[in-house]
Design a protein that fits this description.
about 150 residues, mainly beta, Jelly Rolls, five-stranded antiparallel β-sheet, four-stranded antiparallel β-sheet, 13 strands, about 50% strand, globular
Length: about 150
């Protein structure tokens, strides 16, 4: 277990004034992810102060058809999704490498990524592998997209 990034969320207090409603840092497993925030619809409904990032992390965010998800993924060295873990999604994902080094695998090649690098994943077959001696972490925003090719495998 390790601590994930600090999460600060604003909203309105009982008097209708802007306020900090969440300021936390949660433990997560390696490899794995945690939701920072999820919206079931687009445009988002900001009327509730309910914690939309609470609860267990599961791959249902890949199948949300009307909203968005923002998650943080953690990888131990050599962890990742490769070979049978190659997968496709019906999403467009905006990914920022926050720390460590990763290999991003496509069917025709591999690119090495480091902290600060950005990937736009358009749902085609891909996989990940952490490389080096330190854990890697990514921040990912997932939005629904029309299927490409044969569509999602997860």
């Amino acid at each position: 277990m390790t601590l994930g990034p600090r999460r600060v969320v604003n909203g309105l207090d009982a008097n209708g004034r802007s306020a900090i409603i969440i300021d936390d840092r949660r433990e997560i497993d390696y490899p794995g992810g945690q939701f920072v925030w999820r919206c079931k619809t687009s445009p988002a409904d900001n009327n509730s102060n309910e914690d939309a990032g609470a609860g267990p992390f599961e791959n249902s965010c890949i199948h949300d058809r009307d909203g968005s998800s923002f998650a943080v993924f953690h990888f131990k060295p050599e962890d990742g999704l490769m070979g049978p873990g190659m997968h496709t999604t019906d999403t467009i994902d905006y990914i920022v490498v926050l720390k460590g080094r990763l290999e991003f695998h496509a069917e025709t090649g591999i690119v090495e990524l480091a902290a600060g690098d950005i990937v736009v994943d358009r749902g085609v077959s891909h996989g990940w592998r952490a490389i080096g001696d330190e854990p890697a972490m990514t921040a990912v925003v997932m939005l629904p997209a029309h299927p490409i090719g044969s569509g999602a495998t997860i």
